Amino acid sequence: MDEWLHTNALQHQKKRLSVTEALLDQEGRIACYYTLATAQADFGDLPSEITKHLPRRALPVAVLAWLGVSIAHQGRGIGRILLACALRSCYETGKTFAFVAVILDCINDGARNFYQKWDFEAIPGHPYRLLLSARRLEAMMALPEKTAMP
Question: Measuring CA to CA, which residue among 86, 89, 79, 92 is closest to residue 104?
């Protein structure tokens, strides 16, 4: 993840492929970051509770492409706060550019467990590709702050 951040994040942002937000620590080093992008998901790859009443075609999705916390800052709850910020950004962007879900790919079981605490669900047939429906995201954003975060 560090390599991608240092070599590709800015290039992808300049090419308008993705947007990366980073938080620096007191020494000016990257403490954490996330990257968002957009994509299309095949109608047949999404669960029926999302595709119900939608046209049978590729559907727009938001993609949480990267989320990382530096080793020096892990174990402090920064990942939860960072994910909350990323989801808030998706929610706000969704008011202008519609999408049916936020999708991400997990690198391991620990990551999958982390995201599932936030109501992300596995896409059928893809246990490490998770999604959070736009409806669920909207409901999360309507909750009072203390109940919105797991």
Answer: 86
